[in-house]
Amino acid sequence: MKGLVLKSTGNNYKVKTDDGTLFDCHIKGKLRLNGIRSTNPIAVGDYVFFEPENESAGIITSIADRKNYIIRKASNLSKESQIIAANIDMAYIVVTIHSPQTLLQFVDRFLVTAEAYDIPCTVLINKYDLFQSPEDQAVIKEWQEIYILAGYEVLCISTKTGYNIDELQKRLVGKVSLLSGNSGVGKTSIIKAITNNNELKTSEISKSFHKGQHTTTFAEMYETPHGGNIIDTPGVKAFGLLNMESEEISQYFPEIFKYSSDCQYYNCTHSHEPKCNVIKAVEDGKIAVSRYKNYLAFMDDKNAKHREAQ
Question: What is the CATH architecture of 2-63?
Fold first, then answer.
């Protein structure tokens, strides 16, 4: 039988068949994927083939080909990755300017990772009701300018007031969408607002550290009322840039890649070379300074690791 993985908890998987029947499945023995060193061979969003053991349980035997997937560095094994989800039509990186604060380097790491795996992204500024002061509005305007200039859509929402929730619902119709972001930015609250599922648990922000507390421990997929699926993911602190070399990173900054074709040197690193069209675009305001600085930081990080490995 074939089914869609809705939830992954360790080695146990909730799988839904085309007729809506749910099976609790597990893997028999070791299931390995070619070319991927991962702590979890199966992820939410995967289509799997399984042999039923009874009316509600089965054994997964293989995985259907994926159109894409997104990974992050495994928390306990530095040389392995964790597949967050597979077969994604659109990813939403959920951010907040405070309560808690999302760092732009985190946003850019996620966007680079998504670009590398051919997943389109939208930046979702949540808790908009909290950000009405002139100072907060100035920050939001700055973030909008940064990411719109880079070619991304930016949408402000509030689950508390309902601001733009209808607009978000329209975008989810007929798609498999992923929500990702730091703990506490409100991913689970967004899914509650979209699906009207009041059984989902949310937590308050830690007052002492102004950080979010984990409410989602495993990725899980939910159906949206108007057709579509949305994946809630555990809050993550950071995204490591896996499976890419330093010279590839510029390809995953769309605005840098756009201007790089007119550089004087074909192997330009866009860091110091003369007649670099990317540096000129930064100087002309066509590429946001924060994005360019993060690009250089990612390059330095990759080069440092390369030197350590030698």
Answer: Beta Barrel (2.40)
Q: What confidence tens digit (pLDDT) does each residue in 163-189 have?
A: 999 999 999 999 999 999 999 999 999
- pLDDT, tens digit (0-9, with 9 covering 90-100), for 34-93: 555 667 789 999 999 999 999 999 999 999 999 999 887 766 555 667 888 999 999 999
Please give the CATH topology (third level) of the domain spanning 85-232. Rossmann fold (3.40.50)
Give the span between the Cα atoms of 231 and 100, in whole angstroms: 21
Tokens encoding 205: 């922000």
Give the start-to-end residue ranges of the domains of the chain. Answer: 2-63, 85-232, 246-309
CA distance 91 to 8: 19
- Is there a contact between 288 and 149 (Cβ–Cβ < 8 Å)? yes
The string of pLDDT tens digits covering residues 119-145 is 999 999 999 999 999 999 999 999 999
Instruction: Please count the helices (runs of H) and the strands (runs of E) in the chain.
Output: 7, 13
pLDDT tens, residue by residue, 196-228: 876 665 444 444 434 444 444 578 999 999 899
Q: Which CATH superfamily is domain 246-309 in?
A: Probable gtpase engc; domain 3 (1.10.40.50)
Question: Tell me, what amino acid is at 29?
Answer: G
**Distance from the first to the final alpha carbon of the chain:** 48
Please name every residue paired with 13 in a beta bridge, in sequence order, or none if there are none.
8, 25
Contact 187, 216 (CB under 8 A): yes
Query: Pick from 247, 241, 236: which is nearest to 112 by CA?
Result: 241
Which residue from 286, 298, 238, 259 is spatially nearest to 75, judged by alpha carbons? 238
What does the alpha-carbon distance between residue 306 and residue 69 come to, in Å, rounded to a whole number? 25
Is the CB of residue 291 less than 8 Å from the CB of residue 150?
Answer: yes
